[in-house]
Amino acid sequence: MNEWPDIAWNLIIELLPSQHQSSSGSHKPNWRKTIPEDWEKEVTRQEYRQQASFYAGLAVDAAGYDTARLSELIDHFDNLPPPAFDRLVEVLASPTISDLPEEQRLPVWDHLRKFTHRHRRHADAKWALPDEPITRIEKVAKRLAPTNPFNRYRHLFTDDDFDLYENDNWNEQEKKFDKKRETVITEIFRQDGVEGVVRFAGSVVSPGLVGQVLGTMADEVVEQTLLPNFLDTADNKQKALVSGFIWRRRHINGWEWCDGIDRSDWTPGQIGHFLACLPFTKGAWDRASQWLEENQVEYWSRAGANPYQAGDDLAIAVDKLIEYGRPYSAIHCLDRMRRTKQSIDIEQSVRALLAALSSSEPTYDTDISRIVGLIKFLQSEPSVDQDGLFQVEWAYLPWLDGYHGGAAPKLLESRLASDPEFFCEAIRLIYRSKNKEQPSKEPTEEAKAIAKNAWRLLREWKTPPGAQENGTFRAERFNQWLQRVKTLCAESGHLEIAFTNIGEVLIHAPADPDGLWIHRAAATALNDRDAEEMRAGFSTGTYNPRGVHLVPVLDPTGKPERELAERFRSKAEAVENAGYQRFAITLRDLADDYEHKAERVINRAASY
Length: 608
Hints:
The protein has helices at about 5-15, 45-65, 65-75, 80-95, 95-100, 100-120, 130-145, 150, 160-165, 170-200, 205-215, 220-225, 235-255, 255-260, 270-275, 280-290, 295-300, 315-325, 325-340, 345-355, 370-380, 385-395, 410-420, 420-430, 445-460, 475-490, 495-505, 520-525, 530-545, 560-575, 580-605. It is mostly helical. The longest helix is centred in the N-terminal third of the chain and has 32 residues, at about 170-200. It starts with a helix and ends with a helix.
């Protein structure tokens, strides 16, 4: 305590008894035989009480008359053994503490107030202290209570209303505390005027609650003081104060009050601030258009854009939010419209998604599920512009991986499967050419980002060429697509890597109408004499869907691997009988590999 007082204090606090603690014990030493052989593995109740009493007493002594330490120790009042409990009460009730200036003893009183309130509210809980000790603490708290209203009532103006409630009847408690707040502000207003209320608002956590109370007061001086002077203040607490005032005053007196205010000397910025304090509804939007005209940015750049306030008029707001650089807020509104089954403008949705890519609007409230949900909606709409949807899927490709709401780049995958030029372009973006005459140069950061997106698209590609939207497979289209890819990639020097990627996607090829497990057009391509890389890609693609597979450490059977080995042997036999011998060899290699894995699993289990 003398050399490292702060560290020692923290250690003592951690050593105090608690109702929610456990220990795994300490390892018994093997070298130094300091513990008797006949010692039993237990801590007696007497030993525990002695230890708890010692550390609790040490904590009270270490706290002394330090208000910061006493405030922290008050939070552990309910875990202190009787001697330490009594000593702490004596310290807190002593003249040394009660005679301190109000500002110094305020933290002690606040902790006492919170502690007693929590135990009174949950008096039926097992952990709650009985009435007698709580009453003793309340008496001390009453003695230390501040007389200055600024200090005494500050706790009523926070965002944690539920912590103040005395029971679970929330409606009743809300009305009760609204009444308390009104009484407090009325007292301060009567004593110090509106300037005193403003000072008080600057000292509380939630000045907006102070503003709401002011909004109920009919005194004209309040409105004259706050409007318009507080509308363009740089003080955040004053902003919250006037916002709460405007919100409550309109709630009581309606839009007529807003229309009746003399705004002749207000700046466009002040008008925009005023409107932004009002509910996000058509009433505010119409007034922004009428009052601000060409300066509507003063409203739309500040409006809270809460779609839950707007009802069924959100389409109007979406256009304005996009126009004035708020695409993420527009997407929030569109998501609300989608969830409530409102009619959504498809072109408007595409514009919002694309505008968000280059927007400077803060993204702290961006919810990926909203963007993904909107993209899935667009994918389900037959009338959506294909070029616009293509841009959207490409831009948001990292989120269309199946893990964010099950979304996939359906249009991009379909374009890969139907447009050989697009597939070859993706290959060229990612891989270097094998043609020596093509010079290689360091790609730019933009080129790297495009290449990464193309790689991500090919990695997640699951729609094989020839597949149709209705689930059928067109062999002639597959063959035409493949032939064009061969021509283009041979010219650019990318044929081998193109074959590898084609082989990977062909693991998703459907069964043939004649019953063969893979369509014969795909099997023919895989069996071609020059398609070794394609077969290698098929093999790689077969492994990848299994992902990181955790084999049980003590699996003596290797059953999962042996089942896979048997499955690929059966597939190999089927394609060999159908005349695809080279492809059958690849499948047998897969079967052998899984058989070897099964043996390794079995041997590892046997070695334990």
